[in-house]
Amino acid sequence: MLLFQVVMKSTTRLCSSKPIVTVNGRFPGQTLYAREDDTVLVRVVNQVNYNVSIHWHGIRQLRTGWADGPAYITQCPIQPGQSYLYNFTVTGQRGTLLWHAHILWLRATVHGGIVILPKLGVPYPFPAPHKEVVVVLGGFTLPFQAGKTYMLRLINAALNEELFFKIAGHKLTVVEVDATYVKPFKTDTVLIAPGQTTNVLVSADQSSGKYLVAASPFMDAPIAVDNRTATATVSYAGTLSSAQTTPTNPPPQNATAVANKFTNSLRSLNSQKFPAAVPQKIDHNLFFTVGLGINPCPSCKAGNGSRVVAGINNVTFVMPTTALLQAHFFNLNGVFTTDFPANPPHVFNYTGTPPTNLATTRGTKVYRLGYNSTVQLVMQDTAIISPENHPIHLHGFNFFAVGRGIGNYNPKSDPKKFNLVDPVERNTIGVPSGGWVAIRFRADNPGVWFMHCHLEIHTTWGLKMAFLVDNGKGPNQSLLPPPGDLPKC
Ligand code: C2O
């Protein structure tokens, strides 16, 4: 069992020190190591004056939604002085993921990596690296030995930034994203959204020297982001400290072509051992518009009587005061409704000019799915206010990214081009600005599962919803009962 003590820790940055919320006094937090099929027990003890909860981002949590972590969705927060034991099994997953606080903005400092190794004796489906390095983007050093291959487990734990990652003078071979293997491909630049993880192999094929590593922002939210490029250095053993560093030239912030090229290169490994189980028949055909909007707000001083909101199908999700999963399990009425719309209220037409239906309604609505039903979900970005890239994260599932395009989704012609053979499988996907993505998944995990934009500012504005998946009738097809120490609201 691991102990995660949530404590204040003072950090010094730019000569002033200020206390931040941390796990065990570390920032970023410790990496959690497990093997495929392990049961993981983490006792979280809250010793700060804020409510907390921890989410194991990308862990499927089969039937164990109680351990998923989003506050007010699967659990009430752990209040100051309380503790909660997260208990889950890592079923059929291996790779890199991340854990982070899942309440308000706390994940800015409360986050760390998750490394799931294959079962003992099971090799990777690519050549074993000499060394593995967990890289939580945002400042690090990498010592290299010439001739060896390294595996970097890249984790984007940023609140609001989709990042390009590059190492001067070196090619990166992508082998895994979001704890699923992909067909290896070589690239100069990796694109990685908040909440996403990417494993790359890099051969130390230069003889010596120092090479700049850069993580620079892709357009994402133009509001309130820090546009600095985070840099680090790869330094070969034996390099003189006086040696010059080879610079990287990171892609410009609007390098959509670079982003598209990377995204379109991702394919599931789809090998005999790791087949891609893409649902071929669809039970629920959903079309969600995702984006920002504007609501009238006569009492608002700023914004000339209006306020920025965000929504899915023009619904701004309102956080409940009791966790949805509890309300569902104990049949509490009045906490949520199951009328989340399968389509937007108006036919959506993205023409490059803002549509007129900006206003949203507010509600705690979920979309209900029968056990084991299959879902195709097209998410269309509305890009009403400005270019917006929305990294959408679905809890409780991996999904297949079967299609992607710019402009309006065409329900007649676009599905013909879907990749239903080896689409990449992941848990977080960028909906391109002014474009769409299509995903498919099987609702084989009973419970209540949050789906939201992983740009924290958009989540706060309401770009979120939840799926409710019913229990199945067979053995092992029901949500397990809640643990005795489940926090109360
Ligand atoms: Cu990584 Cu719901 O979040």
Bound molecules: CU-O-CU linkage
Average predicted local confidence, pLDDT:
91
Cα-atom radius of gyration: 22 Å
Instruction: Give the CATH level 1 class of the largest domain.
Output: Mainly Beta
> Helical content, roughly?
under 10%
- The span between the termini is 25 Å
How many strands appear in the DSSP assignment? 32
Sheet-strand content, in percent, reads 35-45%
CATH architecture field of the largest domain:
Sandwich
What would CATH call the homologous superfamily of the largest domain? Cupredoxins -  blue copper proteins
How does this structure look, described?
The chain is mainly beta and 489 residues long. The chain folds into three domains: 2-117, Sandwich (Immunoglobulin-like); 131-265, Immunoglobulin-like (Sandwich), CATH 2.60.40.420; 284-469, Cupredoxins -  blue copper proteins (Immunoglobulin-like, Sandwich), CATH 2.60.40. The protein has three helices and 32 strands. Strands 10, 12, 15, 17, 18 and 19 form a six-stranded mixed beta sheet that branches. It has a six-stranded mixed beta sheet with strand order 21-20-25-30-27-28. A five-stranded mixed beta sheet has the order 9-11-16-13-14, with no helix packed on it. It starts with a strand and ends in a 20-residue tail after the last strand. The structure holds CU-O-CU linkage.
